[in-house]
Write a structure and sequence with these properties.
Helix content of chain B: 55-70%
Radius of gyration of chain A: 16 Å
Oligomer: heterodimer
Strand content of chain A: under 5%
Distance between the termini of chain A: 15 Å
Order of helices and strands of chain A: HHEEHHH
Largest sheet of chain A: 2 strands, antiparallel
Strand order of the largest sheet of chain A: 1-2
Order of helices and strands of chain B: HHEEHEHHHHHHEEH
Shape of chain A: elongated
Shape of chain B: elongated
Largest sheet of chain B: 5 strands, mixed
Helix content of chain A: 55-70%
Distance between the termini of chain B: 100 Å
Largest interface: A-B, 33 and 33 residues
Radius of gyration of chain B: 24 Å
Amino acid sequence: MKYRMAAAVLALAGVILAAYLYLFKLGLIGTLACGTGSCETVQLSSWSRFLGVEVSLIGLLGYVALLIVALIATKPALELARWPSRWLVIMAGIGTLFAVYLTALELFVIHAICRWCVGSAVIITLIFIMSLLDLRRLRGVSG
Amino acid sequence: MAAAPSRMKGFYVTLGVVAVAGLAFLGWQLSRKRTVSIPANVVITPADTAGFRGYLLGSDSAPVEITEYADYQCPFCADFDIVTFPDVKSRLIETGLVRWRYRDMPLQMHPFARLAAHAGACADDQGKFWPMHTLLYQGQTDWARGGAAGHFEKYAELAGLDVNKYNECMASARYAGRIEASYQEAVALGVNSTPTFLIAGRLYEPLSYDQFKHVVDSLIAVKRAQ
């Protein structure tokens, strides 16, 4: 259960982080608290949209979905159910792959690193690891 | 096997702390003084372009007109403005040989170029375009790293602008359409890099002062011969 709880807390942190970046893209926040201009360089680049949708909005919706699944998964009645863990692994796995793609863009295409994006990449990777550990916990349990 | 109530309580307390801290952070960020951004995906209205065809310098009766398409965040444009333009200005424009027209072409790869172009437009509102223009290029390496809006506000003060009026103009983003129209004009002409110069219907990449002088002298000679 502790892995699911950790995933939920991390997903909530991800929601806040992604909301911050999306509010910036909406023009509701002046400048990003970044220390250097790299965050704005990344967030204002053409790569900040994926298939016409703001990457920060995709992140926000993804983290909200992860948070909902993780919260459901922490219900005591579902402690031995495998399906919440499977869903967390699938969703966080997709998120981690997306984070790898975005980090590669930052390093090799945009040539600027946004600390908030790195933070998000770390969060989604940790959620993925928590989900895998939870799935391993349930090995041999039917459900 | 069910999670102990105390563990669940600890979990909910942790969630609550993260939520409160996160919301407090977002609230603080939202309450900070907003800087502006200038949209690129604007609908250009006739009012955006009516009566405005760039920022002019020099005599109306100058025999040659040169239009510069440039981007404030482009290093080559800054080099041109700092190194070559002073000579062009003192020896060709102020002598009445050339009328200079500056048009914005903010490239998408430069996140603050459109904001800088808008700062120039707002300075023009108060008759201070050219001092602002020079400050924007001279400070390019500072503001291109971030915090551009703050730097521009300082330049507005240095250029002698009424800063309150300048800030109101920037917040309104009222010249976004005009800047986009200027950009589209450049694209339609075939400009694909900055700075590019339009002289007598031909596009030129950056020229040295001597090359400008040569082109201008040639055009004047042709006019005299006609």
